[in-house]
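User: Quick one: structure for sequence A, then sequence B.

Assistant: Sequence A:
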Amino acid sequence: MKPAFSFARAERVVFYLLLALNLAPLWAFHYFLTCDGPCHLYNSKILLDFWKGGDAKAVYEPWLYLNARFEPNWFGHAFMMLLQGLQVPGYLAEKFLQTLYVLGFGLGLRYLIRQINPDNLFLSSLGLFFTHHHVFQMGFYNYSCSLAALFWVVGYWLNIRGTFTPGRLLVLAIGFIILYFCHPIGLLFSFLLIGSLLVADFWLDLKNRGENASFVWKKFGQNVASVALAALPVIVLFAEYLFFKGFEIIPYGESKSALFHMLRENKALLIMDVSERWWAVSVAVVFGLLTIFAGYKKLKSKDFRWTDVLFIVFVFTVWLYFNQPRAFAGGGVTPLRLVLLPYLILLLWFASVDFSKQIKTAVLAFAVVVAAVLFGIRFPHYKMANEAALEYASCAAAIPDKATVLPISFNHHGQIASGRYVSEKIWLFVHAGDYVSEGKSLVLLGNYEAHTRNFPLIWKEGRNPFGLLQKDGAMFENQPPNADILGFPAKTGGDAIDYVVTWCKDQNFYDHPFGQDIGRQLDEGYELVFTSKNGLAKVFKRKGL
């Protein structure tokens, strides 16, 4: 007779409680603010207006055009566009995407671990630390979703390997395509993991079969052919992407010691406050201890399995992290994208190790304590971010539909009425002003996506504000910001900026030459028409409009 509350049941309860804890900040407030999230939401609304056509599309046609390339950055935009097309409010569409990611990451990791070793599901609770990582808080939704999709695709392949049918290959092919339209890193790591596991399974099978080597080779060939067939559509897509983007590699200038510091300190978990540091380090220490234990146990018992190839993948991932380029094929890599991958791959290797019940219990207890502490540290910041974002978004009341708007932030960290900064680690408010566009068709000149040419929309020739608004070598996204507001019409053939929305203009850089120059331009060409309740956000309307 099973005990009333077995370890397996306790582990399951802990996992789902921690998963709920990761979801709580998303739904506790009106906004769960990320750095780039508001801009992604805004562009998904533009895509919907392009789809509708007519007057809605006409607002943007002088400024933007649709990127005809199959950019691997469509998933989040298409998801939020679809929801808004179903009359879901924009802020909820963003929440549903964030929720899809968190659930997909947590449940996907658990699913993949189950395929490797169902006795080690406790590791999924440890992996939940990486759900709220630095890059997700930066608003890199597509990259984050690619990690979640990676777990599901590799887990699905493990589940069906050796028993391929046309229907299963179709599902795998769809998984690869979803990965591509999330982010190439997730796709490439799915190939790396599946390829490594395929070869390891073949090698072990060949070693054990002896005289039946021909059968093993035939089976291996069939498995490789099946995966290649499922991956063929996405290989064509990726080849098209590389053909048009080119193979230029821009070397990374950061020193190896700086990269090691980021990895050792587990900087992926530093997202809001400096007090997170030692808790992030404690997670790195636990990973280190588990690595030492697992390595010792493997060497002592010589119980090597085909899934131990995941340790080799981990070593390669660490090498890749230290030798990463700054950019490849037109896309930025950045250490913060890759710094969490060695931890995630190592976690998958841990799943191939037999752990005692005592170690499992200790890891679960550690996960609960640290998750609770990190939640306690971050939650007040999430609350402040929502409070400040709501104040910023309140400017929408003073801006009519179909206007051209320039949001300018004088404090990317964000602050509340008391003067306290919202985030010490991330510039959360770079694009928070984009929330003023919810429910309207506005041309926001801070649309960085259209400037990069890596997203669904691109600024038309001679219309890119990131070049037209530069002044004295600075841009409106710099700190302190600067912008040639009054000179803009002469550069666009007469199209002026209808409204300027400022954030913390009177609180930061007001005595800096750039701040004074922006103030002078606003006094000369604009009139103040709205001030938010705490005076942090203001709307200036062009005179004569």
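Sequence B:
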Amino acid sequence: MSEYSANKSVESSPCSYSNCFFIAVAGGSASGKTSVCSRIYSDLGDKRVAVIDSDSFYKTPVLGESCPISEYNFDHPNAVDFDLLYDVLERLGRGEGAEIPNYCFKQHKRLETVRYVSPASIIIVEGIFVLYDPRIRRLYNMSIFVDTDDDIRLIRRIRRDFSERGRQVDEILAQYEKTVKPSYDEYIYPTRRYADLVIPHYPNEVAVDLVVQHLRYKLKIDDLRVIYSNLHIIPSNCQIRHMHTIIRNKNTSGIDFVFWADRLIRIVVENALGHLPFEYQTVETPIGMLYDGVTCNFKDKLCAVAIVRGGESMELGISAICRDVPIGKLLMEFQDPNTELDAPFEKTKILYCKLPSDINSRYVFILDPILGNGFAVCSAIKYLIDRGVLQHKILILSLLAAPNAIHRICRQFPAVTLITTEIEKGVTDEGYVVPGVGAFADRYFGTE
């Protein structure tokens, strides 16, 4: 058992496999697996994608004088550390980062350096044996087998091993006949039956295109982030989901609701600040060394506008992080707003307005924690634009956003940046987002 296996967390973690989609790409040596992975990676680049090469999980061969490296069977399942691979995939599935070993085919051993892989929405696992181990197969959401003719694979293998791994042609041919081909027939090709999709006769661009389209359908990548480049969803982790769990719980006390909502609001504010322009600055440290950093003077470049009354709950988070940043307010009333996405907002009535006099020269954070239909935010944006604020200088800060609001805001104002932590399923007839938090402002201010 791998030494890493002892560090596994329990599978009952609330974050287990919640936001991670595993894709296996299997096939014989030099079948075109890497090319397929590159295409998938490129075409799904709008999502966070990580590629795990199972070649990294080869065990360091134990060789003797009677067993030179040319005799070692890298195409046998015993050559792969499946325990470590399983452990790494489990960690990534739980939303944790993982260290990937670095196997060197020229030195024929694992190097001391490792590669750190961050959590990702899509994990592509590539290799000849990625469909061999039953434990690992159960982790996959989709599996692909790249089926390429033997002679084509042999030609590719000769080119690869000669140029990249320092092998001689006669050595490559001898190994192919003795271990590679027999192992493929006995261990690798039989795993083809576990594949959801088979790509025949690679290169096969039509088949790969169909695979990518199928993946987009399976992953429901009508993802709003793909449709709208101005939509930014803060990457989720267990800490953020913990905060969501608390504020969404109907039994959470008022004190706890405010505490955890404030924490989540600060995360949104910090993320929004990262979208503002910074200037490079070099400073001297207390020990006389120079540090190349960045700086930004928010005081004269930024203001916030809270949409009354929910947006007022975010004022504390702004003030705690951005000292001396002025905060304005907008209170609006809607008279029978049209429900069409691109409806005009002439029927919006501004009941109260307090804005900085120089707001047209500042970046503006519009504060509204829950975006249901987006009427208020759209009206606020239009109001600010009419007063000289440039569209690209407007950023919307929210905790939750329903698709209705996202479509309405991002479609009409493509230069405005919308930042949120989660996208909701929809909006009820009463105006609550689903699954939502209930009446956010009432819970925050204790007026339920």
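The longest strand covers residues 109-117. Residues 3-221 form a domain with the Rossmann fold fold (CATH 3.40.50.300).

User: Thanks, that's what I needed.
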